[in-house]
Amino acid sequence: MRMRRKKHGAERIAACSEILIENPQIPAIDPQNYFSEKRPIHLEIGCGKGDFAVGMAAKNPDKNFIAMERVSDVACLALEKAMAAKELRPDNLRFLIGDAKNLTEWFPAHSIECLYLNFSDPWPKKGYAKRRLTHRGFLELYRTVLCEHGILKLKTDNEGLFDFSLEEFEALGLTVEWQTRDLHRSEKACDNVMTEYERNFSERGQVIYSAWVRF
Ligand SMILES: C[S@@+](CC[C@H](N)C(=O)[O-])C[C@H]1O[C@@H](n2cnc3c(N)ncnc32)[C@H](O)[C@@H]1O
């Protein structure tokens, strides 16, 4: 997600420090330490402007959500959205500004129950396949941090990325528990919390692909 540099970005992020995991400890500590109550940890990678994370946290008060975004100016908007949703914002949502490639430094093994990848950058050029968040290099990181039988939930508008992801899951022997090539017409549509990209794409008539993968 490209974005013009935010004015006073650092100050705006600092104003949200109560929901920001700043300088996550290395070696990683139990992510439950970032919350006041212990609940299963759900992690979104590439949260963008935060609609999904804010919506999911409000809808699932029995889970602790961490939303990760590597672009700080984008994370700033997500943080401000979460702070503004005060009445919705329970104590179960935190943000982390950083890159998924460092996941295993920030999260101990088997500490995450569910991982979400929503509309990840497709990196369509062949030479860039390793940057895709469903490339086997990333899947190995997810395998480390996910609990036994943890789950990865993927949504994308990009058929090429979806097909590539299914191939990568198969190559690693992962079980695709559920998949659809039209999420909004599937049996899971009623429980679906939309992301910003998802709303834009579906308004333009684009179908949404989704898969749930058991580790
Ligand atoms: C296409 S946007 C989708 C945003 C949001 N998930 C949505 O559906 O509206 C992808 C987001 O993932 C972030 N991202 C890409 N690679 C990442 C990585 N390795 N670690 C963390 N965030 C990443 C980008 O900065 C961008 O904000």
Molecular structure report:
By secondary structure, the protein is an alpha/beta fold. The chain has a single domain, classed as Vaccinia Virus protein VP39 (Rossmann fold). It contains seven helices and seven strands, in the order H-E-H-E-H-E-H-E-H-E-H-E-H-E. Bound molecules: S-adenosylmethionine. S-adenosylmethionine (SAM) binds at residues 1, 45-48, 68-71, 74, 99-101, 118-121, 195-198.
Give a short overview.
The protein has 7 helices and 7 strands. The protein has 215 residues and is of the alpha/beta class. Strand 1, helix 2 (51-59) and strand 2 form a beta-alpha-beta unit.
Features:
single chain; 215 residues; alpha/beta; Rossmann fold; 7-stranded mixed beta sheet; 7 helices; 29% helix; globular; binds S-adenosylmethionine
Helices and strands in order, then pairings?
Layout: H1 9-14, E1 41-45, H2 51-59, E2 64-69, H3 72-84, E3 93-97, H4 103-106, E4 112-118, H5 136-145, E5 146-156, H6 159-171, E6 175-180, H7 196-203, E7 209-214
Parallel strand pairs: 1-2, 1-4, 2-3, 4-5
Antiparallel strand pairs: 5-7, 6-7
The structure holds S-adenosylmethionine.
Small-molecule components bound = S-adenosylmethionine
N-to-C series of helices and strands: HEHEHEHEHEHEHE
The largest β sheet comes out as: 7 strands, mixed
* Spatial gap, N to C terminus: 28 Å
State Rg. Answer: 16 Å
User: Could you please say which CATH topology applies here?
Assistant: Rossmann fold
CATH architecture: 3-Layer(aba) Sandwich
Tally of individual helices: 7
